[in-house]
C-alpha cells in the first residue's frame, strides 16, 4: 500500500491554480480532513483495487484514496479541474481522469464485467440523476460511498409511512442496502453550502427486493405523486380505475390505503398484478 500524500488545505490548491468555485457546476469543495478520512475508511479499498470517483474536484478525496492503495479513475466535467488533477496527481501511475458527466457515466463499461467500488462528493444539483444511474448499474458495483444533502440521506434511509419515504427511497432500497456513514456540517466545505450534508454507503443486494419493470415504475410514481390519495384513486389515474382495482385485489392490497404506507415488496406485487394478463 502506498503512503498517503501529505495533507494540504484544498483552498491552497485552489489559490495556487488561480481558481474559484463555480456556481454553475455547484462546486463546494470538501476541506475537512476528518470527513475525507471517514469516506476512505468506509470504502476501505484493497491494495490495487479500482475505485471510480465521481466529481473529484481538486483531488482531495482522490489523493486520500490513492494513499490508501486504490487505483482511482476520476470522472470530472470541469476542464479546469481536470487540469488541476493532472498537475497535482498526474505523476501517480494509479490515477486516471476522464472528462465526463457524473450523472451519465456508463459504469458497466468502466467495470468491464467486474464489480467496482465507487466514491463521490456529488454535485447536489444533479444528485437525483446520479443516484438513479447508480441504481441502473447496481450489478456493476461492489459498494458506493457518496456525499449527499442531509435531506437526501433522510430519503434514502426512510421507512414506509414516514414523510421522507418516497419514490427515490423505493428505487434505491430495491437494489441497495443503505447505511449511514457520517454527518457532515456545512463548514466542511469551501464555500459552505446552505444545507447540511451526509455520507452514505450503498451496498448492492444479492437479490433485489423488486425488479424495476415499467409496471413497477408506474405504480411507484403514481403512489407518490399523489401520496395523500388512496391507492385506488392514485393508481386509477395512471392505469384506469378498473385495472387498478383488479391489480390491488390480486395483490391483496386494501385499495383504501395510501401509497406511502406500502413496503417495497407490496409495491412490487401491485406492479406484477398490473402486468398480468
TrEMBL record:
Its EC number is 2.1.1.182. PROSITE patterns: RRNA_A_DIMETH, SAM_RNA_A_N6_MT. GO terms for molecular function: 16S rRNA (adenine(1518)-N(6)/adenine(1519)-N(6))-dimethyltransferase activity; RNA binding. It catalyses: adenosine(1518)/adenosine(1519) in 16S rRNA + 4 S-adenosyl-L-methionine = N(6)-dimethyladenosine(1518)/N(6)-dimethyladenosine(1519) in 16S rRNA + 4 S-adenosyl-L-homocysteine + 4 H(+). The keyword Cytoplasm applies. It is an enzyme of class 2 (transferase). Belongs to the class I-like SAM-binding methyltransferase superfamily. rRNA adenine N(6)-methyltransferase family. RsmA subfamily. PANTHER family: DIMETHYLADENOSINE TRANSFERASE, DIMETHYLADENOSINE TRANSFERASE-RELATED. Specifically dimethylates two adjacent adenosines (A1518 and A1519) in the loop of a conserved hairpin near the 3'-end of 16S rRNA in the 30S particle. May play a critical role in biogenesis of 30S subunits. This is Ribosomal RNA small subunit methyltransferase A. The lineage of its organism: Bacteria, Pseudomonadati, Myxococcota, Polyangia, Polyangiales. The gene is rsmA.
Amino acid at each position: 500500500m502506498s503512503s498517503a500524500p501529505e495533507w494540504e488545505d484544498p483552498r491552497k490548491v485552489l489559490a495556487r491554480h488561480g481558481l474559484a468555485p463555480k456556481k454553475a457546476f455547484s462546486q463546494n469543495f470538501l476541506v475537512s480532513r476528518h470527513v475525507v478520512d471517514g469516506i476512505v475508511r468506509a470504502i476501505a479499498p484493497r491494495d490495487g483495487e479500482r475505485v471510480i470517483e465521481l466529481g473529484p474536484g481538486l483531488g482531495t478525496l482522490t489523493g486520500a484514496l490513492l494513499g490508501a492503495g486504490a487505483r482511482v479513475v476520476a470522472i470530472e466535467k470541469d476542464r479546469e479541474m481536470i487540469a488541476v488533477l493532472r498537475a497535482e496527481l498526474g505523476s501517480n501511475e494509479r490515477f486516471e481522469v476522464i472528462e465526463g458527466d457524473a450523472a451519465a457515466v456508463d459504469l458497466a463499461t468502466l467495470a468491464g464485467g467486474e464489480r467496482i467500488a465507487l466514491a463521490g462528493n456529488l454535485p447536489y444539483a444533479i444528485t437525483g440523476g446520479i443516484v438513479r444511474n447508480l441504481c441502473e448499474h447496481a450489478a456493476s458495483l461492489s459498494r458506493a460511498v457518496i456525499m449527499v444533502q442531509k435531506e437526501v440521506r433522510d430519503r434514502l434511509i426512510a421507512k414506509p409511512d414516514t414523510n421522507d419515504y418516497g419514490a427515490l427511497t423505493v428505487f434505491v432500497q430495491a437494489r441497495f442496502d443503505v447505511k449511514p456513514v457520517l454527518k457532515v456540517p456545512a463548514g466542511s466545505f469551501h464555500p459552505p453550502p446552505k444545507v447540511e450534508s451526509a455520507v452514505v454507503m450503498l451496498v448492492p443486494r444479492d437479490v433485489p427486493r423488486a425488479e424495476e419493470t415499467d409496471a413497477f415504475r408506474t405504480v411507484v410514481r403514481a403512489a407518490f405523486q399523489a401520496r395523500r390519495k388512496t391507492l385506488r384513486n392514485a393508481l386509477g389515474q395512471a392505469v384506469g380505475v378498473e385495472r387498478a382495482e383488479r391489480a390491488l385485489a390480486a395483490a391483496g392490497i386494501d385499495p383504501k390505503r395510501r401509497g406511502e404506507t406500502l413496503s417495497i415488496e407490496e409495491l412490487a406485487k401491485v406492479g406484477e398484478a398490473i402486468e398480468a394478463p
